[in-house]
TrEMBL record:
Keyword Endoplasmic reticulum: no
Domain of life: Bacteria
EC number: 3.2.1.51
Pfam families: Alpha_L_fucos, F5_F8_type_C
Keywords: Glycosidase, Hydrolase, Signal
Similarity comment: family membership: Belongs to the glycosyl hydrolase 29 family.
InterPro entries named in the record: FA58C, Galactose-bd-like_sf, GH, Glyco_hydro_29, Glyco_hydro_29_N
Statement: the UniProt record of this protein carries the keyword Repeat: no
Organism: Pendulispora rubella
Protein name: alpha-L-fucosidase
Ranges where the F5/8 type C domain occurs: 415-552
Length: 599
């Protein structure tokens, strides 16, 4: 797989559709790279098939292992550019290895019987057609395919391979109506010019389409190989550049070394890294596509089997905090995720069918016995440790929930179940009148307070820029909450891929919308995902102005430099559960509040 950096924003993607339901309900899938070049490797298709069958290959084994990992779908990558382009089904189309035994059909039947889905990987790339073969040989048989088609086709070219693989898509759709979709490695111009995706939509409207590396609008989901370099290392969502509700998938290997396919080694599995990735992805509504290296007979090396057995019980004990939830702190509400107190880090989840039930996942524990998390306006009723069931002592105030007296932290994920009453202290955004000093066409300031995360305010790459709230009448103002659009990485991966988030800011308030005085708060927001807050010394005012002085992306990132997009912003009049600051200043009494009064 080639890693391609950069992104494009889908212009007309179907962000939600009934065919996507099984993916949206899933937390992850099992990625199976398994083909002719699986160690020890075969150059004869019939010899490979014989070895698979005589070795005891069974589709139920893969299904069982997928269930241990608490995944809900399998992606089979056999027609893969570096695995010999094998097709594990009895195809009538010549050109590459095709088996007599219907491995694909057997897997679909076995998986569907257990409520799991199967997605078929399809490559677009003939580049590796001679890899692993003696000089002059190829995994592709252009002459056989040309004879079948009645005209010359060179399968080693992208157009020729595109024509060949187009026929394979059609064949698979006809043979396997119970397949659930295609996982496509990048794209092919022949497919596009000949309307392949439109044909899939027409012939098999229930099939989903997932695309590796490229955010192609017609695809249901964008998948990316697990990036590295984040701190903490398990926090892949920092590398995501596609905003929900677009379906997003992270692909990562469980073995710590080697290729995506079995190369003869029994690599260790890093339990903390793997479980951290799984949970952190769930905390951002990102699907985890976990690759395990199946041997020729389909079985996994012992270290991967041992991890699967461990994960089965480990995840089951906290499954209610993952199944039927969405990532907290984004468009579904929820407590603030990310970097907490005393070195703690983790994510939050919120139940889809009960938005007052939240879960805090502490993956990296704090140095002490307390944990402090931003409450995002939710009034908390009770907290308990999900694994032990023990009640947890807590206090709430100043916009924060503090759990105390925690003596036992799990090695991988300490989970707290947080029951809340409701959100409180937030002035209804529907009562605001929004304005801005600059806006891009079609993305005006009202989009930042319309309650819809499909719309957003775009500053049109102008800084400094101001977003203004007219509250209609003088009201108490305690803080500003803001969800910036998650369409860029949150850390600088390179000179040309950086964070399009607020850096330096100033906050002003006014009684008449004309006289603003000095800023009541100045500061810097971190380049982090999820909801951010700007706390103020409480003041009574009708008008609030958030001035963004600068954003995080440098001028070397021409796509994101000065870019600012805000999904939703709101004003908090009071903190949930009390605990606000004692000082409450009226602008009518003092219209020139200076920065020394900021919190």
């Amino acid at each position: 797989m080639a890693i391609i950096f950069g992104s494009t924003v889908p212009a007309h993607a179907e962000l939600t559709h009934p065919r996507q339901e099984y993916l949206r309900d899933a937390q992850g899938g099992l990625f199976l790279h398994w083909g002719m070049r699986t160690s020890p490797g075969y150059t004869s298709c019939s010899a490979w098939e014989s070895a698979v069958t005589s070795g005891g290959w069974s589709p139920s084994y893969w299904v069982t292992e997928a269930q241990k990992l608490h995944t809900q779908y399998l992606v089979l990558a056999t027609f893969h550019s570096r695995l010999g382009y094998a097709r594990p089904w009895p195809s009538v189309i010549p050109g590459t290895c095709r088996t007599n035994r219907d491995f694909l059909g057997e897997l679909i039947t076995a998986a569907n019987a257990k409520g799991l889905k199967v997605i078929l990987y399809m490559t677009d790339d003939p580049k590796w057609h001679t890899e692993g073969l003696p000089s002059g040989q190829s995994w592709l048989n252009s002459q056989a395919y040309s004879n079948y088609k009645g005209h010359d086709v060179d399968l080693s070219t992208r157009d020729g391979f595109g024509e060949f693989s187009y026929d394979l898509f059609v064949e698979v759709m006809q043979k396997y109506p119970n397949l659930s979709g295609f996982w496509i490695d990048n794209d092919n111009a022949y497919w596009e010019s000949h309307g392949l995706y439109e044909k899939i939509r027409k012939d098999r409207p229930s099939f989903t389409l997932s695309n590796n590396n490229e955010d192609t609008p017609i695809m249901d989901m964008i998948s990316n190989e697990q990036k590295t370099g984040m701190t903490p290392s398990y926090d892949y969502p920092q590398a995501v550049y596609t905003a929900a509700p677009r379906l997003i998938e992270a692909d990562y290997k469980l073995p710590t070394g080697g290729a995506w396919w079995y190369s003869g080694s029994n690599s260790e599995v890093d339990y903390k890294l793997t479980l951290g990735r799984y949970v952190t992805n769930a905390g951002s509504s990102i699907k985890s596509l976990m690759a395990e290296t199946a041997m020729v007979n389909g079985k996994f090396p012992s270290n991967q089997v041992n991890f699967n057995n461990f994960a089965n019980g480990y995840l089951q004990a906290i499954w209610e905090s993952l199944e039927g939830t969405e990532g907290g702190g984004y468009l579904n509400g929820g407590l603030k995720p990310g970097f907490w107190n005393d070195g703690a880090h983790g994510v939050t989840t919120v139940r889809r069918n009960d938005p007052n039930v939240h879960y805090i996942h502490v993956i990296t524990r704090p140095s002490g016995s307390t944990l402090t998390v931003r409450d995002n306006g939710y009034r908390v009723a009770r907290v308990r440790n999900l694994r032990s069931g023990a009640q947890v002592s807590f206090t709430q105030g100043g916009g924060k929930l503090t759990l105390s007296g925690i003596s036992a932290w799990d090695d991988y994920d300490t989970v707290f179940r947080v029951e809340t009453v409701a959100r409180e202290g937030i002035i209804p955004p529907s009562t605001y009148t929004m304005s801005a000093s600059s806006s891009a066409s079609g993305h005006g300031p009202s989009e930042a307070a319309d309650g819809d995360y499909l719309s957003y305010w775009d500053s049109n790459k102008v800084t400094p820029v101001s977003l203004r709230f007219d509250l209609g009448s003088a009201k108490r103002v305690q803080y500003i909450g803001i969800n910036q659009r998650e369409d860029s990485v949150s850390y600088a991966r390179s000179d040309t891929e950086q964070s399009a988030r607020i850096r330096d800011y100033r906050v002003y308030v006014s009684s008449d919308g004309s006289n603003w005085g000095n800023p009541v708060k100045s500061g810097t927001l971190p380049s982090h995902r999820g909801v951010q807050f700007i706390d103020l010394t409480a003041v009574t005012a009708r008008h609030v102005r958030l001035e963004v002085v600068s954003t995080w992306a440098a001028s070397s990132d021409t796509t994101r430099y000065k870019r600012l997009r805000v999904d939703e912003a709101w004003i908090g009049s009071n903190y949930a559960g009390g605990g606000g600051l004692d000082m409450d200043v009226s602008l009518d009494a003092n219209p020139n509040i200076d920065a020394t009064m900021s919190n």
